[in-house]
User: Which sequence fits this backbone?
């Protein structure tokens, strides 16, 4: 068995396969030209749920060197292909600054004139607090620009737990005194066995709880990302794991839970299993059931935790889907979107639309 720097034992067979697939994929990566170094991967605005209201999200994805865990000898997570958008080499601070400015300045007028309040989601395909990815001077530059925009009420950034320290939280408090900040952590599940034997995250639940504790001390929010239906789980196991994780996280009083149904990304172990018909992305029916059952166990059927789900690739073969009928998947996406925006669980209960594929689902859910 192999221990990483968090003293977590990894499954050596899983690590070997993930690493070889990652190496093969990255060897085919195109070289990134200088002009791409100066441009963000993507940015967009859309309607979104804020803490206490419906508003809009402004998402910016910076092109950094990539996730340190994915670039390590452990190969990264079994379902994540975001390293394919990274540069793989160090990106000069001035390039990161220019990427942010291009995206931020292009939407600034629209944001300031909008009637809605905004949440800014700032991603970089790795850890925002990893100094080798995003240097401290760039973090402070970004924080200072955000602090001046009144319409931006919330900020979400992401990091592996190992990079979240008191010093990093002090950075936030000193630069963003007038914003609600939430740090997203890819916990994926509260089950250590599933997380490290099926997903290969490389840290345990105790490490997550440690970080949650220091974030609470500094009044900084924590968003826990849950992976719905990791590799090697069937539909029923995915439902059970999701319910257990939601309830345990709610008891710990995390601020938000984002449920992310697995979508098949290139060069990953999940894609390898999918090509072999050994994995099927989850059904919407399973996701709805998991959320409904979790709510049923909350006192009075309500929770103060923000529960979100905005699946990538939804309705396609590679993403969460029921059958492949467009009408069926569009209706499921609409229902999930309404729940996310309103936090009204009745949206997932009172569903008038019925598709014949539900019978197939009932037959398959304990086997696939």
Assistant:
């Amino acid at each position: 068995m192999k221990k990483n720097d968090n003293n977590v034992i990894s499954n050596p067979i899983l690590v070997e396969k993930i690493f070889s697939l990652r190496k093969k994929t990255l060897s085919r990566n195109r070289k990134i030209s200088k002009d791409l170094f100066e441009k963000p991967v993507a940015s967009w605005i859309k309607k979104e749920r804020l803490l206490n209201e419906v508003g809009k999200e402004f998402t910016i994805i910076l092109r950094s060197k990539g996730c340190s865990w994915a670039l390590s000898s452990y190969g990264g997570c079994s379902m994540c292909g975001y390293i394919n958008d990274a540069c793989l080499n160090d990106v000069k601070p001035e390039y990161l600054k220019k990427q942010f400015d291009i995206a931020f300045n292009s939407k600034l007028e629209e944001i300031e004139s909008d009637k809605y309040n905004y949440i800014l989601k700032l991603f970089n395909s790795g850890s925002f607090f990893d100094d080798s990815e995003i240097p401290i001077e760039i973090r402070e530059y970004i924080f200072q620009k955000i602090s001046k925009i009144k319409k931006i009420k919330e900020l979400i950034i992401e990091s592996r737990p190992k990079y979240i320290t008191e010093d990093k939280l002090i950075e936030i408090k000193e630069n963003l005194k007038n914003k609600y900040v939430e740090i997203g952590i890819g916990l994926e599940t509260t089950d250590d066995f599933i997380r490290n034997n099926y997903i290969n995250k490389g840290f345990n639940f105790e490490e997550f709880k440690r970080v949650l504790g220091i974030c609470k001390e500094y009044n900084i929010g924590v968003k826990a990302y849950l992976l719905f239906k990791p590799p090697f789980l069937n539909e029923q196991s995915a439902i059970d794991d999701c319910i257990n994780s939601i309830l345990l996280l709610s008891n710990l009083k995390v601020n938000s839970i984002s449920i992310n149904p697995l979508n098949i990304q290139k060069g990953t172990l999940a894609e390898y299993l999918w090509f072999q018909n050994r994995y099927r992305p989850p059904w919407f029916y399973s996701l709805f059931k998991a959320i409904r059952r979790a709510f049923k166990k909350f006192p009075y059927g309500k929770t103060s935790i923000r529960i979100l789900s905005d699946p990538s690739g939804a309705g396609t073969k590679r993403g969460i889907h029921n059958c492949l009928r467009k009408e069926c998947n569009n209706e499921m996406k609409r229902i999930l979107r309404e729940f996310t925006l309103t936090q009204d669980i009745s949206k997932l209960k009172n569903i008038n639309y019925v598709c014949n594929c539900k019978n197939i689902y009932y037959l398959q859910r304990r086997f696939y």
Q: What stands out?
A: The mean pLDDT is 94. Strands lie at 2-3, 9-10, 42-49, 54-61, 118-123, 152-158, 180-188, 221-228, 256-261, 306-308. The first strand starts at residue 2 and ends at 3.
